[in-house]
Amino acid sequence: MAKNRKVTGKAAASSASRTIRSKTTGSKSKTSGGSALSQRKAPKKQTSAKAASVASKVLQDGRTSKASKSAAGSALAQAKKK
Q1: DSSP code for 7
Q2: pLDDT digits (tens, 9 = 90+) for 58-67
Q3: What angle do CA 63, 66, 70 make, to 5 degrees?
Q4: Are 54 and 60 in contact, with CB atoms under 8 Å apart?
């Protein structure tokens, strides 16, 4: 199985940081933000299946901020491939 070597870009990492520091952000958004931020310069790390599921739900939620969606998208792009 091919490994996913993507890393979180600078803009997505900034969005993830903003998401984590926000007091109004929900736990699911913070989970996906943390996953994206942990992969900033770590091409060997991949998003777990559980974190990918949470990131998917964040992207589908209409109430989610643009910064949270950016972080969730980055985390989801780095998920393990099936």
Answers
A1: -
A2: 999 999 999 9
A3: 120
A4: no
Break the chain into its structural domains and give their ranges.
10-77
Residue 2: the pLDDT is 63
Q: How confident is the model at residue 5 (pLDDT cuts 50, 70, 90)?
A: confident
How many residues are given for the chain? 82
Q: Where are the alpha helices (DSSP H) in the chain?
A: 10-21, 27-38, 49-60, 66-77
Q: Are 37 and 17 in contact (CB under 8 A)?
A: yes
DSSP 62: T
- pTM reported for the whole predicted model: 0.83
